[in-house]
Amino acid sequence: MKNIITIIAATAVSMQMYAQNVDEGVKMYQYERYETAKNILSSFADKDQVANYYYGLSLIELGELDAAQNVFNKSDNYYNQAGKARILYIKNKPEEAQKLLEEITDKAKRREWEKLKVAADAITYTKGGNIGLAISWYLTAIERNDKDADLQIALGDAYFRLVEGGGNAMVSYEKAEEIGTNNSLALSRIGRLWYVAQQYDDALVAYNKAKEADPLNPLPYRDLANAYQAAGNYENALLNIEEYLAKSDQSVDNKITYANLLYEAKKYDLAQNKMEELIAEGHERPYMYRIIAYTAFELDDVQKAQENMALFFQKAKQEELINNDYIYAAKINATLAKELKDANANIEDSEDETFLENNAKIADYTKEIDANLAKIALEKDAQKAPIYRELGVFFKDVQDYNRAAHYYKKIVDLENYEAQVLDYYYWGFWNFYAQNLEEALEAFEVMEREFPDEGSALYWQARVKAAQYPEAKEDVAVIAYQKWIDFENENYTHSDTELMTAYQYITFYHYNNDNKEKALKYASKIKEIETDNAFAQQIIDYFNQ
Questions:
Q1: Rounded to whole angstroms, how far apart are CA atoms 277 and 282?
Q2: Is the CB of residue 428 less than 8 Å from the CB of residue 444?
Q3: CB within 8 A of 275, min separation 6: which ones?
Q4: Among 51, 243, 394, 405, which is disulfide-ready with 430 (CB 3.0 to 4.6 Å)?
């Protein structure tokens, strides 16, 4: 009798451990730890239809569709049918998939809610099905069993896919939390809803509760990283993505996300190393060359940036390209062109072979710059302004003042965007440096009209006119300088440097026109600013001889 009791007890313990292991595998699947779920559930798949089902789903998520198909082909129970339907949806065969699912639901007896759930799940967690039909199946299942937290979470996920489904999704997630058997997952979903609604404080609260409910759940760490990333808080984003990686299966996608965050946090060397490490491990993806190119450029390794950008364009599909790719490509080519221009500046002979070769390369780079910039596609004016401003600053840095001015002019010309005073200023300023004096003058005149309290518009109009009349024999610039000198505004101050420029030109003009009184007057003003100014002293000495 004792032996029988011992055997029964051992069997009970074994069954309990078996159930726990299957439940653990399912939880790992729900936590998106698909490799771990696969490893746990593979041992039980031949004995348990639930284990077999989630084992197959894990294979789907890992991209092993043929292996998943073999798992679901083992028998025709409703779990396997639902799994086959998911594969059909993935293969873009929605009619065949729905037929399989309707066979499951049509056979569901009065109390069989699980069949309705797995059929609805196939629609909710793949693409191509009728989400409204899935919701109706969930609601019927809940009528039969309103105490299953996973069922409520799945209903919430279905509502979440609807444009106006956030409110109903929240109700379902909160009901799942009340049931209390899978709180970490439910709270993660609540956090996601708050995050999408841009209620970031509430999202953070929910994510932190999800971490407390189950420290093994990696999802709230990932979602926190995404939230901090969106807010531009890259340090906290990195802290959470590192926690996520420690608790997740560290898939290639997760590592790419980590490398991307390293790039956005300006940890360029680390981001580059991570991508090169993944390529060396045999996980090459086109995106990796993008980040290597970006980071190499930021680390001033322009040759490496050019090589990897070329590899990225070669390997990536057209639909994978983004505006930033064209912007970086333009920056890389512009930097290479500047390096050659600087080299040519040190070659005196314009017929020198190296000089001519450099010029030919500069022409090629210039064509590439124009081609790259032409591919930037922006829809909303509010999106255009910061990118145009970024390009304006960059082209200023590489001393391409024509392009710098061009992009500030594009900001000013946006119809649905209120340009800043500095946008007008730089439109004129870089045209001035590019010797496009007519357009520079136009820019500062427009700036004066748009910002009448900004005295610098008057000053730079005078500077442009002085550049147009460098011999100072006509009074065009003198009148402009005097208008600026007379300008008064409590928020504007005439700097000594600017006054010095104005007084010197006006003095020179009166010297040219042999007006002793005014020449000496403005020479004296110069010496008030700089007592030992040589130019002013020469003027004074000349008229006092």
A1: 9
A2: yes
A3: 256, 259, 288, 289, 291, 292, 295
A4: 405
Q: What is the pLDDT of residues 129-160, one digit of tens each?
A: 999 999 999 999 999 999 999 999 999 999 99
* 35 domain residue, yes or no: no
Distance of alpha carbon 86 from alpha carbon 59, whole angstroms? 12
Assigned domain for 74 exists? no
Q: Is residue 522 part of a domain?
A: yes
Average the pLDDT over 242-271 and give the result: 88
Residue 50 makes CB contacts below 8 A (sequence gap 6+) with: 22, 26, 79
Residue type, 350: S
**Does residue 527 fall inside a structural domain?**
yes
Closest C-alpha to 52, from 70, 64, 66: 70
- Give the DSSP letter of residue 320: G
Q: How many helices (H) and strands (E) does the chain have?
A: 29, 0
- ∠ CA(173), CA(179), CA(180), 5° rounding? 90
The per-residue pLDDT for 499 is 96
pLDDT average, residue stretch 1-26:
56
Encoded tokens for 336: 């290479």
**C-alpha angle 304/309/310, rounded to 5°?**
100
Report the distance separating Cα 465 and Cα 201, nearest Å.
55
| 205-215 average pLDDT score | 91
Residues 6+ apart with CB under 8 A from 85: 97, 98, 100, 101, 119, 122
- Residue 101 identity (one-letter amino acid): L
Number of domains the chain is built from: 1
- Domain encompassing residue 544: 452-545
Query: Which domain CATH number covers 494?
Result: 1.25.40.10
